[in-house]
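Exam revision sheet. Question 4 asks you to relate a sequence to its structure. Input first:
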Amino acid sequence: MTDTPHDHPADHAAPGGDTAPGDSREALLSSLRAYIIGLALAILLTGTSFWAAGTHLLWAPGVPIGLAVLAVAQMGVHLVFFLHITTGPDNTNNVLALAFGILIVFLVVAGSLWIMANLSANMMPLEMMDLHRQH
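Answer key, structure tokens:
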């Protein structure tokens, strides 16, 4: 077989595979394995959360804490396995963008709670409101 301009050996490297030019089949299988592990962990954590919320075998006051821990673990699985947020030197911008997003969410939630608490503290008591309506 002779190489023609339209017939490159890399085109025949992975028959039936969906790899980009220059990508090896091993790299594709490695990333696929990582996605499958992430999916399995996400399904396991989700199932555990539903089980913990619906069972009476656990200490009732500890269930919300357990669900919060499972939610943080779920976020970690999504960040690492699906969004590829790692501590590698090539992911510095991704980590900074994630940290900035977390800061913005924290500021919005904390600011909203502060405003609502301030409004609640400055509201007229309900008994006083009833007296003002009658007069």
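Marking note for examiners. DSSP finds four helices and no strands in the chain.
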